[in-house]
């Protein structure tokens, strides 16, 4: 089953205020969504770019994290496990959806995201 789309790419920060100042005042990105000091997502010319707090960033990751939207996270988890891929975490984000954090063969962290069903 193919990936639906690249949902976003994000970086981690220990200082959300400084990061927001840089991305908004210096680079001119416009916030699309913010969750307090945990997460801010920007419209970057039709693509999503986000900054996540230390709590949102996968433990052990370094650099940017790509998030790919998939239609069925459980099916994808099974196929990744069968392929011997390293799965390092999962998270239920309630009404937003669920994520699965995996490590690719080169050691890069990425996340698969399944959107929550519309209510």
Automatic annotation (TrEMBL):
Stored Pfam families: Glyoxalase
Name recorded for this polypeptide: VOC family protein
VOC domain location: 5-115
Organism: Ancylobacter crimeensis
Xref: PANTHER family: GLYOXALASE-RELATED (PTHR33993)
């Amino acid at each position: 089953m193919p990936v639906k789309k690249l949902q976003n790419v994000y970086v981690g920060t220990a200082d959300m205020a400084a990061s927001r100042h840089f991305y908004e005042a210096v680079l001119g990105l416009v916030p699309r969504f913010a969750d307090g000091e945990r997460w801010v997502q920007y419209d970057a010319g039709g693509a999503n770019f986000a900054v996540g707090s230390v709590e949102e960033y996968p433990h052990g990751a370094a650099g940017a994290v790509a998030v790919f939207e998939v239609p069925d996270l459980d099916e994808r988890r099974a196929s990744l496990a069968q392929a011997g891929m390293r799965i390092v975490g999962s998270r239920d984000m309630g009404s937003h959806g669920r994520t699965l954090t995996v490590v690719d063969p080169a050691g890069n962290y990425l996340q698969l995201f399944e959107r929550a069903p519309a209510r």
